[in-house]
Design goal:
202 residues, alpha+beta, Naphthalene 1,2-dioxygenase Alpha Subunit, Chain A, domain 1
Length: 202
Amino acid sequence: MLAVSAFNEVYHVAFVHSESGNSFRDKDNMFGRPLWTKLDKRHHTLSILGNPDFEMTPVEAIAASHTPQVSQGGVGYGRGANPSGAKNWSLDINVIFPNFFVDVASGWYFTYNFWPLSPDRTFYEMKNYYAPPRNASERFSHEYSRAVLRDILHEDLHMMEQTQTGVTSAAGAPRHDILLSDSEVCVRHHMKVVDDHVRGKD
């Protein structure tokens, strides 16, 4: 559940991705509060901010001139995305119980699967999906986007390993409670759904 929770909120961007994730926050939303959330019985969606004032590197700008980039900020959206119609939208995080994510951005999407191997080990699988490239420029753009997202996810995975070390350390007695903020409403929802499922209440 730790791995799923790590991708169910965005406030960590200000700390874990202080350099790589600046396109997901702005001066009015420095700590990644969701723009919109919807909680269903077992699944949920949250929409996150795209900073339209984010300044790309020169190479990012070249890549973004051919296809949308993860670092691009708010650039519009397709049918079904951005359910709230937020102006500064970047992507929707759609979580399908128990372990599948579909993150929809402008012109592309990516998926996560989390496969538990033991109480403290998870196999994490991530895939990117783009329209077939029509030329070498679009292929470069797709590969650049993959590389940017890969680097961001490496930061997430490093933090998850550190968190797991803390959870399993002998530093204190095991805790059966956890304090979560309003920005973590989707983490709370997922934990409740898992708990209900394990107890046979669903």
